[in-house]
Design goal:
Helices cover 33% and strands 23% of the residues. The chain is of the alpha/beta class and 266 residues long. β5 and β6 form a beta hairpin. α3 packs parallel to α4. The radius of gyration is 18 Å and the shape is globular. The chain starts with 11 loop residues before the first strand and ends with a helix.
C-alpha cells in the first residue's frame, strides 16, 4: 500500500473518531462507553485503540491477557478482534506486554495503526469507534488520510488548558485538505456531585467550557458527563458505566449515542 492509498473497510458502515488535544480528559473512557452504549441500542460495534504508545482499552474491558486469533485467508494473515460486552476490540496492547514501552518512530506507529485496521476481520459493523491518542501526530494524520471517517467527536474538560488543546485536535479535522465532519463536543468531568447531596453541583474544572468550544466550532454539545468516582472505578475493573449505580452518567452516554445515531446513517 502506498502512502496515499485508502484503506477499504467494505463491511464497516460508519467510522467515528474520538479525539482530544491532551491526555487525562477521559477520552478512552468516553470511547469505551460509547461503543457499549451503541451495542445496547442493537448495533454491531467495533472499537479500535489507536493509542499505539499507551493503549488503555484492553484494561478498560478487562481483557489485557487476551490473544487475538490470527488466520491466513490465502493472501495475508488476518486478525480476529477480541469481543467483550458485544464490542469487537482491537488494540496493539494485545500484542505487547503490559509494562513494555514501544520505542518506535512516528512512521512505524502509523504503519502499525494501518495494519490494525486493514488486517483485522471486522465482519458486519454498523459503527467503528476509533479512540485516538492525544494530540495531532502521525497516527491521527495517517488514519484520517487513509480511512473514510464519517465524523469525529471532540472530548474536553471545562478548563481552559484542556480547551486550548481540544481546539488543536479540532483543527486537524477542519483542515481544508482533510475535511472530517465534527459531530459535536463531549464535555467530561463537567461537575462533581457528592452522593449524600445529589442536588448539589461543584464545578471543579470550571463551567461552560464545552459549550464555548462548541460555539467556536459551530457544532452542538453532545453531552456533559459529571465527575463520578464509580465510573473510573468501573473502568479500572474492566466494567462499563452501565455496571455502576449513578444514573446521571448512564443518561449522559445514552443521550450522546442518540445524537450520534441521529447524525449518521446505518
Amino acid at each position: 500500500m502506498n502512502a496515499f492509498e485508502k484503506i477499504s473497510l467494505p463491511t464497516v458502515k460508519n467510522v467515528i473518531a474520538v479525539a482530544s488535544g491532551k491526555g487525562g480528559v477521559g477520552k478512552s473512557t468516553v470511547s469505551a462507553n460509547l461503543a457499549i452504549a451503541l451495542v445496547r441500542q442493537g448495533y454491531n460495534v467495533a472499537l479500535v485503540d489507536a493509542d499505539i504508545f499507551g493503549p488503555s482499552i484492553p484494561r478498560m474491558f478487562g481483557v489485557e491477557s487476551a490473544q487475538p486469533e490470527v488466520l491466513n485467508d490465502g493472501e495475508m494473515d488476518m486478525m480476529f478482534p477480541i469481543e467483550k460486552f458485544g464490542v469487537k476490540i482491537m488494540s496493539i496492547g494485545f500484542f505487547v506486554k503490559t509494562n513494555q514501552g514501544l520505542i518506535w518512530r512516528g512512521p512505524m506507529a502509523a504503519n502499525a495503526m494501518t495494519q490494525l485496521l486493514e488486517n483485522t476481520h471486522w465482519g458486519d459493523t454498523d459503527y467503528m469507534i476509533i479512540d485516538f491518542p492525544p494530540g495531532t501526530s502521525d497516527i491521527q494524520l495517517t488514519t484520517v488520510q487513509k480511512l473514510h471517517i464519517s465524523g469525529s467527536i471532540i472530548v474536553t474538560t471545562p478548563q481552559e488548558i484542556a480547551l486550548n488543546d481540544a481546539r488543536k485536535a479540532a483543527s486537524l479535522f477542519n483542515n481544508k485538505d482533510l475535511k472530517v465532519p465534527i459531530l459535536g463536543v463531549v464535555e467530561n468531568m463537567s461537575w462533581f456531585t457528592p452522593k449524600p447531596h445529589p442536588e448539589e453541583k461543584y464545578f471543579i474544572f470550571g463551567e461552560g467550557g464545552g459549550q464555548r468550544l462548541a460555539n467556536e466550532l459551530g457544532v452542538p454539545v453532545l453531552g456533559q458527563i459529571p465527575l463520578i468516582a464509580e465510573v473510573g472505578e468501573a473502568a479500572d475493573k474492566g466494567l462499563s458505566v452501565y455496571s455502576q449505580s449513578d444514573k446521571v452518567a448512564v443518561e449522559a452516554f445514552d443521550g450522546i449515542v442518540e445524537a450520534i445515531i441521529e447524525k449518521s446513517k446505518v
